[in-house]
Design goal:
single chain, alpha+beta, 49% helix
């Protein structure tokens, strides 16, 4: 509350949402000793929308959480509490003999405030920790000061990210245009090759159709010189043969044949 009041007095606004902005929440390690032992708690907030401080057009986000410590503990009425006696022993000269001690992650009663950039393209983060000697309230002026000092830093990072994103966009569009041109050439070559292949196949079939048709004409002429019974039998067999070979002729295939432009038009 003191932090919000100090921000409000300077004309800065605190909100849980900024419409139209893609802002993200940073992770936070609430261990009082970041390098110490203990369980690391993730996903502390639901919903995941970051808390935002608006300073002009710049947005800062913050996390506020009670810190934890990994200490000797004992179970009392289904909950773990600090084992103060064991804590004193392991801090004293007799600490070495105690190799197997029940330890658990417990809240300290002291808080951690983390200020950070909610923009994915700007990396900035500062933490303020409450200690036994120094509370968070006394650090409020410094919190506001570090945010003001960070504005040009974050602004520069955002601009650099915008320039890099624009360069990537231009590079992608150029590479995509090159790919499209290569793809167009490839399709044209494939269409031309397919048309040539099919046309040569039709020409080969055309010669075959002429040869088959010549066979039937010659056979019919030869059958004319036979007796009536043989002539009828031969003509029936020729009719069956014609039906057996009743596939698309070269002329029919030529009607269905497509030029390269027609193939590309249907692609």
């Amino acid at each position: 509350s003191r932090f919000f009041d100090a921000l409000g007095k300077q004309g800065y606004r605190v909100t849980l949402d900024v419409p139209g902005e893609r802002l993200s929440r940073a992770e936070i390690d609430i261990k009082e000793d970041p390098k110490g032992e203990g369980y690391r708690w993730d996903n502390l907030w639901r919903p995941y929308t970051p808390s935002i401080i608006c300073i002009g057009n710049m947005h800062f986000a913050f996390n506020l959480a009670e810190m934890t410590e990994y200490v000797p503990a004992k179970k009392v009425k289904n909950r773990y509490v600090r084992d103060e006696q064991m804590g004193r022993w392991i801090r004293g000269k007799n600490s070495m003999p105690f190799h197997h001690i029940s330890k658990h992650t417990l809240p300290t009663g002291r808080f951690l405030l983390q200020l950070y950039s909610p923009y994915e393209s700007a990396d900035w983060r500062v933490q303020f920790r409450q200690t036994k000697q120094c509370g968070l309230i006394s650090q409020i002026p410094k919190m506001i000061a570090v945010m003001l000092e960070a504005i040009p830093i974050i602004t520069r990072q955002l601009e650099e990210a915008r320039i890099k994103a624009e360069e990537r966009r231009i590079k992608y569009e150029r590479e995509h245009a090159i790919w499209l041109e290569k793809e167009r050439i490839r399709r044209e070559e494939e269409a031309h090759k397919a048309s040539i292949t099919e046309l040569k196949s039709i020409m080969a079939q055309w010669a075959e159709d002429k040869r088959v048709e010549q066979f039937f004409r010659d056979a019919e002429l030869d059958a004319a010189g036979l007796d009536e019974q043989q002539k009828v039998q031969i003509m029936e067999r020729l009719q069956l043969a014609r039906q057996f070979l009743s596939e698309d002729t070269a002329v029919e295939r030529l009607l269905k044949w497509k030029t390269p432009q027609e193939r590309l038009g249907n692609a």
